[in-house]
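Dear colleagues,

As part of the handover before I leave the project, I'm documenting each prediction I ran so the next person doesn't have to rerun anything. This entry is a single chain, and its sequence is reproduced below.
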Amino acid sequence: MSTDFLSKVYQARNPDETRALYDEWSGSYDAEIAANGYVTPTRCAAALAQFCDDLTAPILDFGCGTGLSGAALSKNGFTQIDGVDVSPDMLKTAQAKKAYRNLRLVTAGEDPIKTPGDYSAISAVGVIGAGAAPVSTFDLLINGLAQGGKMVLSFNDHTLEDPDYEGRITAWTDCGAARLLFREHGPHLPGINMSSTVYVIEKA
């Protein structure tokens, strides 16, 4: 199984280049990462489900890609999942998984939440980090949660090399604006010996 896309994905790119890469990758994405043992969506969905009292409340799957994260959320009991992504071709693949209530194309940097509090939970699996959305996206998403809302996200090993990413979580929790409910470092893509840390954050 080729890993050409995996070798490119963590390189710095502008938003148009990122969208083009994921459009091109959409047809082989699921197979390539499955061949490398991709487990972060399953880890994130299970972690988030532990802390959500109402799994029927709407949840936003930010950067849903081909829908692997939405499928994992559905398997863990979430029933009203909306997905957004910058890649139209990825969204076509996600649609076929039938895990989503709605799917919507967004542009890089666009606020996907029309009214703060629309979603009781947000999932951002492998979306913020090296070669993907900037660290400021964390602020954008958590600001869209109502008090008590939960967000699950993951940072892979490449992202964790930059202290700004975990530092952004710490900045929110140290001032009391958010609480860290869960943090676990574990497998991400075992086939290429990469791990990730999964976090569940509650907005205070």
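The chain has a mean pLDDT of 90. The longest strand covers residues 178-189.

All the best with the project,
I.
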